[in-house]
Amino acid sequence: MSSLLAQLFPPSTTRNMELSADVLIILTSAAIIYYLTRWHRWKYLWREWLTTVDHKKIGIMYLIAAVTMLFRGGVDALLLRAQLAVPNNHFLGPLHYDEIFTTHGTIMIFFMAMPLIFAMFNIAIPLMIGARDVAFPRLNAISFWLFAFAGFLFNISFVIGGSPNAGWTSYPPLTELAFNPGVGQNYYLMALIVTGIGTTATGINFLVTILRMRAPGMTLMRMPMFAWTTLVTSVLILFAFPPLTVAMVLTLFDRLFGTAFFTIGRGGMPMMYVNLFWLFGHPEVYILVLPSFGIFSEVVATFSRKKLFGYSTMVYSVLAITFLSYGTWVHHFFTMGAGAAVNVFFGLSTILIAIPTGIKIFNWIFTMWNGRIKMTVAMMWALAFIPTFVVGGATGVMLGAVPADYQFHNSYFLIAHFHNVIIGGTVFGLLSGVYYWWPKMTGRLLNERQGKWAFWLFFLGFWVTFMPQYALGFMGMTRRMYTYSHGFGWSSLNLMSTIGAFVMGAGFVVMVYNFVWSQIHGEIDVTGDPWDGRTLEWSTPSPAPEYNFARIPVVTDRDAWWAIKQDHKSNVIQIKPQEIQDIELPKSSAIPFLMGLSFFVFSVGMVFSWWWIAVVGFLGFVVCMLVGTFDYDDHKEVPRQVIQNTESALGRLQG
């Protein structure tokens, strides 16, 4: 028993910070259980959310998970900045610092940004292309629950067993069992394997959805720009995530079964891990930012009240980025001795990819030119992106210059660039999408005044946080440094960066308050089209009914809903009763949730080398697969009369 307790609760899980987290987790869990029990919500939770296969509800669950992970990753960031605020600080010890920056990077990339992207996919894409649902609704739910349980697995590591501490890239030999005993790194590997499987399934799902389920008349060149960026992102996922999964599995084998794929002392090749990781890692940058490009295209066109300028050019540029993104991965390790010829090729490809990226910025500017711009919060995030991403892109080209990269590579200049691109591109874009599609998700509008407070706090805090880090990089401060001495002259810039991080945190708090406030006091969207939108999702009520469209629309123009409104001179389309037919929809199912739970049990067994628990989890997965395979009663029919009643209550039925 004592050895088991020592394994579950090593010293790294019994520090004051971790014990405080334990208390908060227990209190929060007790409050949730009390609420669900007191108000008899267990059945509702199971019926409406845990077993749903409705893409709209899955999108909302992705969004809730992403905001939760943004809080967790943001707290990690504040802890890192608190440690670096002043010289010779001992707020965090070196091991604790390693754990915090590992979990910060991993959570923000895999468990915040990716689910926020998938939230936007689920909320907008089927409605935007005139589809009833995604191509594989049950697979969509499985993808969510694999992500959710992987995120839960990763997050319990800091209170049970110990956190991973080898960095978010987790290069060997830092991950080798000889140098990194304990189970922390196993948590990292299993969480990324499981969420990677779910992410790959999501890529397949939305690729098929867009290619096969568009409304009649919606050719590829009539698709909204967000649908295009979702399409190419899905392609990138299919080719980028398998190398990551392979790297994680082989590293796990090295740790658990004594193989030597990357173990250098036994003839392994750590550089092979680095290649596999960045074969995923650089396309991942575009997996993160391309959906934001699509969101900006929709937001800028809507709030400029103009068609997107240079639509064809935008399409070809995202296709070019998709292709070129696979020829840039080696620029992440120019300093590792790949050779001059290799470095020159990847340096040129890195600079070349800036061209199609820059094209989009000019297109958005020309779209706004002479437009009647409405300065909503969603539009403010889009405008803030342009200067922010220009700086991030320019510094990326600097890093692509091989001789310069030898100076910048391991410095805070790289940290500033990476955050400049990921926050200024991905996060700004996704927050723009959240504000833009919030009425469609919830049926209520967010408070614009609160949204502008959140925007300015977050935006100004961002610049105050990361601009000093470029200077720190020039002054020689290296990344992964947990403390520093007075004599380097870094103190004032680090303090400024820390203040900016806390201002960003204040912006996040105001934003979440706005989300909660709107659900209680927010203005109800009665039209379904509060922004006078241009694409088909705005032709449906807010929130959209379970069946999405009572009648699948026929598309005749690129801005399909805008064209329909011009023809009908109305922003509400009334449907004739005889046009409504019975609609077949997928049934809710417990299988996706139980499959995610089985993967979680299997993962816990693998993390702690408890093989009998791993076998139980694997058998649970097999049973779920078999039951799902032979479940032929997986659809339900929504009667015509129910649809008529719903549409009539919404004022959308003629007569």
UniProtKB/TrEMBL annotation:
| Subcellular location as annotated | Cell membrane
Enumerate the Gene3D superfamilies for this protein: 1.10.287.70, Cytochrome c oxidase-like, subunit I domain
Q: Which residues form the Cytochrome oxidase subunit I profile domain?
A: 40-556
Question: Which keywords describe this protein according to UniProt?
Answer: Cell membrane, Copper, Electron transport, Heme, Iron, Membrane, Metal-binding, Respiratory chain, Transmembrane, Transmembrane helix, Transport
- Bilayer-crossing regions: 20-37, 58-80, 100-129, 141-160, 187-213, 225-253, 273-296, 308-329, 341-366, 378-402, 414-438, 453-475, 495-516, 610-630
UniProt xrefs under Pfam families: COX1 (PF00115)
Q: Which InterPro entries match?
A: Cyt_c_oxase-like_su1_dom, Cyt_c_oxase-like_su1_sf, Cyt_C_Oxase_1, Cyt_c_Oxase_su1_BS
Main location class: membrane
Membrane topology per record: Multi-pass membrane protein
Which PANTHER family does the protein's record reference? CYTOCHROME BO(3) UBIQUINOL OXIDASE SUBUNIT 1, CYTOCHROME C OXIDASE SUBUNIT 1
Family assignment?
Answer: Belongs to the heme-copper respiratory oxidase family.
Protein name, per record:
Cytochrome ubiquinol oxidase subunit I
This chain's source organism reads: Sulfobacillus thermotolerans
User: Could you read off the lineage of the organism from its UniProt record?
Assistant: Bacteria, Bacillati, Bacillota, Clostridia, Eubacteriales
